[in-house]
Amino acid sequence: MLSITSAQLDAWIAALMFPLVRILGLLAAAPVFANRALPVRVRMAFGVALALLIVPMLPPMPPIPPGSGVALVVMGEQMFIGIAIGLATRLIFAAIDLAGSVIGMQMGLSFALFFDPNSGGQSAVLADFLSMVATLLFLAIDGHLVMLDLLVRSFEWLPVGASLHAEGWSHLARTGTAIFSVALMISLPLLAVLLVTNTAMGVLTRAAPQLNLFAIGFPITMSMGFFSIALIMTNFGPVVTNIFEHFFERIPFMLEALAPIAATP
After folding, report:
1. Domain edges within the chain
2. Which one in 136, 197, 211, 220 has a CA-CA gap of 20 to 30 Å to 254?
3. What is the pTM of this model?
4. What is the number of H-type helices and E-type strands within the chain?
């Protein structure tokens, strides 16, 4: 008769539970996976299936009883690690949303807002458009597979039960400051065109005061904005792809900073 001891049962539960928590943390924060259009049950099923696939490849789990207080602390650490990996990638989409909002405001489309179910608030039309294009580029370069690969390799860099250093979280916070620089880099060509357009409209109004600035300025500004967007879309893909690759290269350094013993990923 097959007999299973409590120690064996705890080991089996821990071998699945700790990796599953890290995976669910990634799925809760990563772009595409965290989309609210994707049902929670589907994400849970995908997380369990992924955990069952990668558990045989992982190093042995620490002998921690699943029902102990230490296990709760370890589960919290695994959750934060998964969220950190997903959040580092989501920062790119936040920068693109910011760029779209700034461009829309300069074009006079600040009133054109839609309800965004992902953020739970109002978002600009251009921000949604650029975010949709960035999502398609993210899937085209297999960014979702790269995130899953980083997740699996994170168990080698950060084994379950290893103490985490605060330097990794500060590295993630410093990475968040790149949102503004990336947003400025994306929106700068259009902002330059709109600045020249508004300057020309100001000079024209000064030279001919009888012109109604609000009657002719708004259509011209919007037309120049849409014309500029059509021109830069040919270069939008390579630029965003390079940004994705740059952030993917920075995630291992963040995990290295979190590791108790520095090791080259």
Report:
1. 75-258
2. 136
3. 0.78
4. 8, 2
